[in-house]
Fold Beta-galactosidase.
Amino acid sequence: MKNLSSIFYGGDYNPDQWPDEIYQEDMRLFKLAGINIITIPVFSWALLQPSEDEYKFEWLDKILDLAWENGISVCLATSTAAQPSWMSKKYPEMLPVDFYGRRRKHGGRVNFCPNNEKYHEFSTKLTGLMAERYKNHPAIALWHIGNEYGNYCYCDKCEEEFRNWAKKRYGTIENLNKKWYLNFWGHTIYDWDEIVIPSGLSEVWMDGWTAKTNFQSIAIDYNRFMSESVFNCYKAEYDIIKNITPEIPITTNLMGTFKPLDYFKWAEYMDIISWDNYPSLTDPMFKTAMRHDLMRGLKDGKPFLLMEQTPSQQNWQPYNSVKRPGVLRLQSYQTLAHGADAIMFFQLRQSIGACEKYHGAVISHAGHENTRVFKELTQIGDELKALGDKTIDSRMQAKVAIVFDWENWWAVEFSSGPSKDLNYVEQVEKYYEAFYNMNIAVDMVKPEADLSQYKIVVAPVLYMLRPGVAKNFESYVENGGTFVTTFFSGYVDETDIVKVGGYPGELRKLLGLWVEEIDAIFPDMSNSIVMKETVGKLEKEYISKMLCDILNVETAKVLAVYGKDFYAGKPALTVNNFGKGKAYYIATDPEQSFIAGLMEVLCEDNSITAPFQAKAGVEIAQRFKDDKEITFIMNYNDEDVVINLKDENYIDLIKNKGKKGEILIKSKDVLVLERKI
Ligand code: GLA
Ligand code: ZN
């Protein structure tokens, strides 16, 4: 974010759960911890609008003024994630209908039909009133629309809107029958009102946590339609606010790899991306890093905000461990290292009732500052003050991109076959992990992205190719890029119709091969990848599982073959020279050491190196601003480590001290180094 004097530090504040007497004490504690922003009022629609014609803003006026008197900015939430109960009572069709066709009762949150007109009317009216009332309030730094959108609905209104959506997209019934492949099982339709939404009452069922369907095309389209419908709720509020306060950035808090919403589409109407990060005790750091990079990638690498993390525990995970000493600080710096300009929390003062009362908070149930967590929070707050604006609006400079695509995710996992174990995000994570462990920066990009700035592009399991995507990859490789893709790629078009003539369809020329069969092996079975020649450190044999393509090379060169079964000796890893570049194909699901080894070689070939040599468990990431390079080093290990900075002159931005040569980084400690370039 431009023009910020220091990193936003604060979070969700719920004064509506407390009597007025406590607010002054809250402000004292906030300032003590270095908090400079509060998000308010995220869930107060019922208080702001007690009935259809009555609005009450006075209590909010008071808090905004109080914040500002205390030098604290406000991230103003529109409060539209949970409608008042009188509204659900008066307009019951506002409540969504679930997967099994049951109208939900009032309760929970984000519990509304996204296509309900009354919801749109009331939410935009409230937002408009707030924007008018507070447009000149000096505390307002940012708008926060709704909260963690993620609703889904199968009501009659949604069905009607879905029919209109399909009509707009496909034009004629004939075309729709073709695109949805409706001659299959005699599903041919003759009128738009014969379209049935794909739910648990029609074409979809749940296989554990994964939805499966008879008609992938319809199910994918319903996801597209729902993602757009929910987006339209956000966009309606966005337009109203933009009109009244064009200068104040607008966001909504996203959720990382959240399957139902195509965030790349949402990002277009988010002035700045923000997201909520809730790793558990056992989540490896690379997974969080990947999600930060994905969120940064939504807006072409522009900085994002961490809207929420917990200062310590969650309440909603199966095991809500406290964050170990130093971990909150490590996680906060990891967030900055991957491109954030804000470190914010849920929640500032801990609730005493309902389901989040045992969720960590800046001010815990103890009610004072003498806690381990508060001390750690204060240390971070002080350090962020010391960093000032040094890191703000800086960018990462990745030479590696990994392709991520929501529609592809839906398509891969709706697919009936080849293996129920195929999990799209897990496949992407394997490649990300390989680069992460080498401390090599990665951008997460959509398939249509401009790839010219990258030396390596990896597109794991890119099963669905939208128009133009294959061409995008081809011209990237023609111009010298290194491209990697895997099994189960290039099979279908955007409506999930197979491209005939041999997989991977439109990628066949680029990869110089065609896939004849794909074998799904059982979880207790394996095959192996036997190197035909040494590739970097890859030699001998590696285990592979789950899926094995049986393929024929055309122009590609075979680097490794299968070790077992009737296709032993057939290609398992190939490379094709294409223009000035190379396209690799990994035909099966290899053990991690194989992926790591291959990615290492590709980095060497392309002269991509880590900023410093470091041992495992030390993460290094860099951001760049003007003529400055800012290096973040996080030591996650239980032991101290030594890193050699060589003869370069660095400034330790936290301690404001010069650094060079060999330096010791204590266990769980962090270093932020600046250097002129
Ligand atoms: C989400 C929500 C918050 C809160 C936290 C609890 O991120 O946005 O309102 O419920 O989870 O972890
Ligand atoms: Zn609905």
The pocket of alpha-D-galactopyranose (ligand 1) is lined by residues 147-148, 253, 276, 278, 308, 314, 346, 356, 359 (CB under 6 Å).
